[in-house]
Amino acid sequence: MSSLVLALLSLTLSAGGAPPAASPPGGSPSTSPGPGADGAPRAPADGAPASRAEAREALRRSLERIVATSALASARAGVLVRSLDTGEVLFAHDPDALLNPASNVKLFTSAAALSRLGPDFRFETEFLLAPGPAVRGAPALHVRGKGDPTLVHERLWAIAGELAHAGLSRVGDLVLDETWFDGEREGPGYDQERGDRAYLAPTGALSLDFNAVAIHVAPGDRVGAPARVSLEPATEFFQVQNRAATTAEGTRRRVTVSSEPAGPRQRITVEGRLPLGSRAQVVYRKVDDPPQFLGATLRRYLELRGVKVAGRVRLGPVPEGARLVHVAESESLGEVVRRLNKHSNNFVAEQIVKALGAETEGAPGTWSKGIAAVEAFLAEAGLPRGSYLMKNGSGLNDANRFSARQTVRLLEEMWRRFPVMAEFVGALPVAARDGTIRWRMEGTDAAGRLRAKTGTLTGVSSLSGYAESRDGEHLAFAILVNDHPGRTAEAVRAVDALGAAIAAAGSPAAVPAALASAGTSRGAPPDDAGVRVAAYYRLGLAGDRRNLPFLRTALRTETDHAARMAVAEAVYLSDPFGDGARRAFLEAVSDDPAAVDRLRALAGGLVEAPVLDSLADLAAEGIAEALTRLAELSAAGMGERLAPIWEEVAAVAPGETAALLLSAPPSLANPAASSLALGIARAGAASEAHPVMSELARAAQVDGEAGSAARALDARLRERIAAAQVPQAGGAPPPLPAAAAPTALPAPDVELGTRPGGG
């Protein structure tokens, strides 16, 4: 949480003066603050309110102030906080607005599945031998799937062993039965986003490894050697095209991995450049044909176990009279839901919806059957059909609408359902402890005492769940934010401030005390900033992910602007391919040249170009946000210093660089274009041969507005390059030329991370 929001919490929660002690939940005023989660009484806090009414009022004021003075003030936000002990609404802000909840939809999916199927339900995968004539001298082995979302290749290897131990030594065809689900593989809302990212993985009654493959990429042993590419799992189902090469140390890294169907196989194409000695990277991509993926992997594992597969892998129903030889059961549904919500896995959510449809209305499972089953459960819970919009089970993209009040109503219902309450609540991430909020709300009363599901899409940030307040009261809350301005981190910090205040309810003085103990409510002495920066960079340069907990804590408690950028860069250096690490770094980068210069002085040579070098690495990978940060720094007066960086980045990522220059507002595009032109001019090569110019030349051949914009940008860049090449008196570098405003075009959406899952 930012020091600004934390200071705001401290100010608002102490605004009513120093109150005395809180009353216990549901009781009369008392000097006891009530029991904790373990049943032991809490010690009264200094300055606690004299009555529950005063505590309620203090909480209301603090939440109102956060909403009014944070990024939420310019967003559409619905917030509701209700006591589970008394039923009182403690705070409401536009609670009935129907908003996109993003992955908070997984709460509704989980609740319906647990309530309808039970926490002990298990998904089954059946293995049967066909009766009748043998195929190539052996019976066909049939595999019937029932939507297990957790079957991974390690378990499939164990299953192959079980089949071998059961006496199988030779089988004919491997016949895959997918009839438990229908043939639709993409849920509603998935069509709004095309690509091969793992979080877009298709569904399948027979699925493996979340229907994604891990591609490991590492540099070769010498400059010019091909990159080393390996897959997990490795089977003949995949066709690998390796076009990535090893480059000299210190060059910019650029690895692109794509996945697409290639007849009966899946083609994985790896392109780019990896500096000699750089770290290995793993990228996840979706698999388009789940049953064939599973079948090819099972065939390989059977043969490694000594079971000969004489035939081929094909689809087909299990015939009458087939003999069951093995049943592989998943973990219990309670554990599956835990996996779903702790890590917000889109694939698991959609598998559950279709399985719920098949189990309640009969095979084949479909999205319409599954959503109908969820709606029937929600009607029982007090949410009538038609009062919300639910099209898929994961919350992906713009397909669902719920209100904060409806979300809290669901949370109340699940709190009262004793047979499933433990599994539902236990599946939620715990603030500052695990899941998608492992690194959030540290050093506040929410840490360890707030359990909530996150939701993140472009312009959307949600957090809904439960909290135990400072005085032991149990609260349900929902925070749904849409169309927030600025960086995502600002909205997240505001949401986290609300969560921290909710958990601190009952004792306003506890928040300033907690902040002071965490070192967040006071500025750090300026004379030791260099010592801290050096310590951060030494940890980051070690490249050890075990340093992340300390660095994440430091990122939230560091108050010095330059030092905060240092710790964010150390987080990135410790985990350069981690989604969260990259986001943390990019969000921390300032557009203030003075802060960047101060950081360089504080670093004392430990890193050659603090912030700028890592920013250039990410921009060279084509990450739009990194390119935007470079443009912001160029606009702030660092254009000449960034000229060689822009030239390097544009050479490695010409398409993304051109897209930024065409789509950014003139205030960013013009300085960036001038800096790039200066960099190309100083590089000394012919401008026509530069990759970004070649990219623009190709784009200029397109008809319509896009081609016209590319031609105009190409002409402006050539003019600036020529102007920059004119010798100046005294050898001084030429001034950066001015530019006309480019025509705005949409830039491609480049992902920050690659791991399976969702927000």
Structure in words:
- The protein is an alpha+beta fold.
- Strands 2-1-18-17-16 form a five-stranded antiparallel β-sheet, with helices on both faces. It has a five-stranded mixed β-sheet with strand order 14-6-4-3-15.
- Helix 1 packs antiparallel against helix 2, helix 7 (346-361) crosses helix 8 (367-380) and helix 18 (612-620) packs across helix 19 (624-652).
- The chain is globular and about 85 Å long.
- The relative contact order is 0.12.
Q: In which order are the strands of the major sheet placed?
A: 2-1-18-17-16
Give the helix tally: 23
Report the structural category: alpha+beta
Largest sheet: 5 strands, antiparallel
Shape-level CATH architecture of the largest domain = 3-Layer(aba) Sandwich
Oligomer: single chain
Q: What is the CA-atom radius of gyration, in angstroms?
A: 29 Å
- Separation of termini? 19 Å
Overall helicity: 40-55%
Q: Sum up the overall morphology in one term.
A: globular
